[in-house]
Amino acid sequence: MTAKALPHSVVRPPLCPSLPAEIWINIFRHHPDLGHLWTTCRRVSPSLRACAEYAFSEHFLKDVYIDFHLEKYNLGGKSKRPEVCTTFARRENEWAWYKDLRPDISAYKRIDQVHYIKVTRRWEENVKGWKAEMPNYTIHIGGLVNDTALPGLQIDTVNRDIRVRWKEMLSLFFREHERSQLLKAAFRTRTAKKVQANNALLMQGKTLMPFDCPPLLSTAEAEILKQIRRMRLKEYYGDDEQMVWAIDSLNHFEQYDAGNARALRINPDLPGAGLGERWFGSLALVQGLYLDEWSCVHRIGCKGEEVKDAR
């Protein structure tokens, strides 16, 4: 018995000629949504990927700002904190350099040069002492702010600049933005269904309880940010069982009273950390992660408001 020959696929010529790369680049450079440009348009084809990356390298890298925060401990509040702000300086292949915005030390009086040197040393310490759970910087692109990793981060205190692998930096940044958009869309869908169900209960003359009310969007956004950050940390510490346990334990460590998202209660009774259990004595690790997370989320929020006010 002979097998039937598979039908030949018919390759149809395009109905219209493809646009030259120069036109695609010109279109992309005016794209209003950089997240969509990087995560969607760039994935369409190899040629559009090259066009999108060229548009970013030539037109959008200058709109990326990296601000390094110098304080050791985030004490809350919204006052202006000491930081070293950097802006795009140049690009060579996969590397992008960002320059310290401060004038050269020679422009300062001698008494101010001591403070200048201290700030530079603290900046260098923060860069070389980078930790995934406490990056000590924020990245803002357009109106978006986050503290995703800076692949290949290196600092040159003599030239007062840093360099990063810019494509990887953008991929990590916009990946979390894409995740955030998906989770927010899912939240809106759940909220709409919950509101519809609540309206049906009210039509039946029933009384709603506090836990029947969906959370506010602002509350959901804060939780989504923490959820995405924890996903990031679990990816980074994937081979460290204790850290993965500690990250998962953050959900148990912080608890909110039903119907009141502001009524936070700390729960020290963590699964797996009881007497005789594997992670007994590891509560301090979870506490440290919680404080680092609070500090970073607060810092991102303050920088977001600062960027919004400046636009």
Structure characterization notes:
It comes from Decorospora gaudefroyi. This is F-box domain-containing protein. This protein is an alpha+beta fold and 311 residues long. It folds into two domains: 62-171; 174-310, no CATH class. Helices cover 47% and strands 14% of the residues. The chain contains eight helices and nine strands. The protein has helices spanning 21-28, 34-39, 46-60, 110-128, 166-203, 217-236, 241-253, 283-310, and strands at 64-69, 83-92, 95-100, 137-141, 144-146, 154-156, 161-165, 254-256, 264-266. The protein has a seven-stranded antiparallel β-sheet, sandwiched between helices. Helix 5 crosses helix 6 (217-236). The longest helix has 38 residues, at 166-203. Mean pLDDT is 87; it is low at 257-261.
Short précis:
By secondary structure, the chain is α+β, with helices and mostly antiparallel strands. The protein has helices at 21-28, 34-39, 46-60, 110-128, 166-203, 217-236, 241-253, 283-310, and strands at 64-69, 83-92, 95-100, 137-141, 144-146, 154-156, 161-165, 254-256, 264-266. The protein folds into 2 domains: 62-171; 174-310, no CATH class.
Topology:
Elements: H1 21-28, H2 34-39, H3 46-60, E1 64-69, E2 83-92, E3 95-100, H4 110-128, E4 137-141, E5 144-146, E6 154-156, E7 161-165, H5 166-203, H6 217-236, H7 241-253, E8 254-256, E9 264-266, H8 283-310
Helix pairs in contact: 1-3, 5-6, 7-8
